[in-house]
Amino acid sequence: MRRGERFPADAAEIGLADVFVEQLVDLTAQQREDVLVDLVRLCDDPGGKHPLRAPLAGWNTLEVLGGHQRVVYRASIVDDVGLIEVLCLGPRTDSEVYDMAIGLRDAGLLSEEELTGLWDALAILDVVAEQVGLDGWDFVPEPAPEGMRRAAIASGLLDAETAALLSRDELEAAMSAGWGPHGPDPAAALVAALERARSRAVPMSDDEAATILSARARDRCGVILPRAQRPCVRRTGHPGPHRSG
Length: 245
What we know:
Elements: E1 11-17, H1 18-25, H2 29-41, E2 50-51, E3 60-64, E4 69-78, E5 81-91, H3 96-106, E6 115-117, H4 118-124, H5 146-154, H6 160-163, H7 168-177, E7 179-180, E8 183-184, H8 186-196, H9 206-216, E9 240-241
Parallel strand pairs: 1-5, 1-9
Antiparallel strand pairs: 1-6, 2-3, 3-4, 4-5, 7-8
């Protein structure tokens, strides 16, 4: 994409080559967050600042970590949906990052088998979505199996509408921790479920959990992501990275 062009709704699917994720692992926790913040900002300005020429025509670079490193990426629009494919990270000196990018591109390291979605990468890198400027709650996960939902409902821990908005892991947490001295405690069950989904230094309140659940019930974005070939599960009109699950 050219400088000044924008993605539809300023949103895009972001895929990371596995080698790029491995490079992030080698950084400090703060450096990882800083790089990811800069990547998320590409949804607002995909054209970047330094488009490349042959043999990397069609690719672009993003300066990160105070300008000492560059990320090589490609931005495009596929079937009216934004797509950012991130290849590698490397030093800006002596064209080292470009030599690396050419080798990785020629090796085909943006195949489906060698690509990690941004949201999966956050989990791999143990980075909380909010730390990189994302709303980690505005999505609906794949629901828990029907039998688990029925068990939680029959036990009095959750109502049917709430159970349908929780993933398997979240529902397991609700069923494990949602009990008080007098039996089922629906508020505690919901808090336990959502705390399972996010690392937190401060315990979640009942009101906060209810607000998050309400956000999950809103209409979904639903666009089909070019690489994942699955619908986006974030809320309608969200900015930034699409999410397939």
